[in-house]
Write a structure and sequence with these properties.
Number of helices: 3
Number of domains: 1
Strand content: 25-35%
Distance between the termini: 45 Å
Order of helices and strands: HHEEEEEH
């Protein structure tokens, strides 16, 4: 069992967030590890033989999926981990607005979104071919 030390008795702000806020919104380590395995598997099995691969980035409560295609890296979507449901909510990147849009639900590939990382990557392949 991992020893994480004594319980925190005083919350100190870090980048404007308390430890409590960060732990309440951060993606659990187990979910991050599972996500990395899923992305690696998708890259190896689905994208093998192409010049394309997904590149994950974690920041706070989000997993950002960028895609490298022929040497160019572009944003595809942002996933938010929903701890209680153990699902991921997608926000597709809208180039027209230069932002991730969680309200956008009608895009090519949206029917592939199923709360999984694989579904988000499949949707991203349809949305941005």
């Amino acid at each position: 069992m991992l020893d994480i030390g004594p319980p925190v008795t005083k919350l100190l702000p870090v980048n404007g967030q308390s430890d409590y806020e960060m732990s309440a919104t951060a993606i659990p380590v187990e979910a991050k590890e599972e996500a990395l395995r899923d992305i690696a598997r998708f890259n190896q099995e689905v994208l093998a033989g192409t010049e394309c691969r997904y590149m994950p980035r974690f920041k706070g409560k989000y997993l950002y999926l960028d895609r490298e295609d022929s040497g160019s890296v572009e944003p595809i979507c942002r996933l938010e981990y929903k701890r209680r449901k153990r699902l991921w909510e997608i926000a597709i990147y809208k180039y027209s607005a230069d932002r991730y849009d969680p309200e956008e639900c009608f895009f090519p590939g949206s029917d592939l979104v199923d709360g999984t990382i694989e579904g988000a990557m499949k949707a991203g392949m349809e949305a941005y071919q």
